[in-house]
UniProtKB/TrEMBL annotation:
It comes from Berryella wangjianweii. Keywords: Hydrolase, Magnesium, Manganese, Metal-binding. This is Exodeoxyribonuclease III. Belongs to the DNA repair enzymes AP/ExoA family. The active site is at Y105, D155 (proton donor/acceptor), H253 (proton acceptor). The lineage of its organism: Bacteria, Bacillati, Actinomycetota, Coriobacteriia, Eggerthellales. The keyword Transmembrane helix does not apply. GO terms for molecular function: DNA binding; DNA-(apurinic or apyrimidinic site) endonuclease activity; double-stranded DNA 3'-5' DNA exonuclease activity; metal ion binding; phosphoric diester hydrolase activity.
Length: 262
């Protein structure tokens, strides 16, 4: 099974840059997007043989997530179940027979960590959400289910270790590389989840998924790895490939992918 995730930083813009062709070439069983930046009815995509599921932010032109799947999920959730965190369309969770698939666009802590308290609340609530799904506890509005593993993907807005960004020393303490954010990501992994890229590529350097538009960052590969596929530890042995597709353009992020033997 091939799974793909991509922060498109504005789907309407990427649609003009060959999104349909990129989508077709991946031929993913499930394709997740973050930062779609649109509302219902603002785009028409021709993606045959895929069902589509969208979460929209209340604020227009902001945030947003979407999942396209060759199979119809058993059910789809669009919120964590925490009112103050569920206004920005940051999650789409699809239940399949084998696992829960969770697409997430984690809030940015912003300059000088201005939104760090909101970010910490999100990280705690998201971790609890995924653990609850894994145990078969579905938020209000969803249908009860048996326990099953979780596959989560998206823009987590954090580089976990120094190997995950080009310039760790100068970025220490900044949004995306603060001790607080890195600590919460560690808590997520310690709760029973595996970073699939590092599982298969533990020592690979220069593997990044986001580059600033400034200073020729992408040309110089001065990037950050902030887009991930994580799986419940019980699925780790079924991971056959985890890749970063830095050759795919159209956004300041590139797609990441996972192949699972399920």
């Amino acid at each position: 099974m091939r799974l793909v995730s991509w922060n498109v930083n504005g789907l309407r813009a990427v649609a003009k840059k060959g999104f349909d062709q990129i989508f077709a070439e991946f031929d993913a069983d499930v394709f997740a997007l973050q930062e779609t930046k649109l509302q219902e009815g603002q785009i028409q995509l021709e993606l045959p043989d895929h069902c589509d599921y969208w979460s929209y932010a209340e604020r227009k032109g902001y945030s947003g997530t979407a999942v396209f799947s060759k199979r119809e999920p058993l059910q789809v959730l669009h919120a964590l179940g925490v009112d103050e965190l569920d206004t920005e369309g940051r999650v789409v969770a699809c239940e399949f027979p084998e696992f829960w698939f969770v697409d997430v666009y984690t809030p940015n802590a912003q300059d000088k960590l201005a939104r760090i308290d909101h970010r910490m609340a999100w990280d705690d609530a998201f971790r609890a959400f995924c653990l609850n799904l894994q145990e078969g506890r579905v938020p209000q509005g969803g249908q009860a289910t048996l326990p099953k593993p979780v596959v989560m993907c998206g823009d987590f807005n954090v580089a976990h270790h120094e190997i995950d960004l080009k310039n760790p020393s100068s970025n220490r303490g900044n949004a995306g590389f603060s001790d607080e954010e890195r600590g919460k990501f560690t808590e997520l992994l310690d709760a029973g989840f595996t970073d699939t890229f590092r599982l298969l590529h533990p020592d690979e350097v220069g593997a990044y998924s986001w580059w600033s538009y400034r200073f020729n960052a992408r040309k110089n590969n001065a990037g950050w790895r902030i887009d991930y596929f994580l799986v419940s530890d019980q699925l780790a042995s079924q991971v056959s490939a985890a890749r970063i597709h830095a050759d795919v353009f159209g956004s300041d992020h590139c797609p990441v992918s996972l192949e699972l033997n399920v």
